[in-house]
Amino acid sequence: MAGKPARGPARGGPPPGGKGGGGGADSASMLTWLGLALLILILDQFTKVMVTGYFQLGDSRTVTGFFNLVRVHNAGAAFSFLAGASGWQRWLFTGIGVAAVLLILWMLRSHSGQRLFAFSLSMILGGAIGNLVDRIAYGHVVDFLQFHYGGWYFPSFNVADSAITIGACALILDELLRVRRSR
């Protein structure tokens, strides 16, 4: 659209109206986004403590005709990818998680003034750290939300997974809006 400045062709430049990575408003924004990630982490860990305190491994409690609370342990990645491996996957996924957290922190610092983008990163960051804590402490991730219909069951997940999914969807939306503005 004519007359509307775009963020630029890539995310490498400073956010509009600010000096990337610096003090003042950007520092305040960065604290806001880190606070959101911390809130997600606390909510995730709190719910996992509740589930592990009230449920034995494999327990299930029907909540509605399509939703159960369960306790399952996922030693793999999304959708139990590599869950049946001999244990090496714990360290692979831990390393990937640490690398992702560092990359997200760097990107968040560079783009804390871009609200939707920073929101996306914060949600992903909080969820990634939540699952990383589980993986380091227990060797698996605690999942407990289970949706189903008839005989079909969606793989169980947790608050961290939900935050990562919301963050990923918001990231896609942010990119679609950026492309639209650049036209």
Kindly report how far apart the N and C termini lie. Answer: 5 Å
Report the uncertain regions. Answer: 1-23
Order of helices and strands: HEEHHEEH
Residue-averaged pLDDT: 83
Strand content: 5-15%
Helix content: 55-70%
By DSSP, the count of extended strands is 4
Q: Let me know the largest β-sheet.
A: 4 strands, antiparallel
The 3D shape can be described as: globular
Number of helices: 4
Class based on secondary structure composition and strand pairing: alpha+beta
The overall number of domains is: 1
Evaluate the radius of gyration.
Answer: 19 Å
Strand order within the widest sheet? 1-2-3-4
SSE arrangement:
Elements: H1 25-54, E1 60-62, E2 67-74, H2 88-110, H3 115-138, E3 141-149, E4 152-153, H4 159-182
Antiparallel strand pairs: 1-2, 2-3, 3-4
Helix pairs in contact: 1-3, 2-3, 3-4
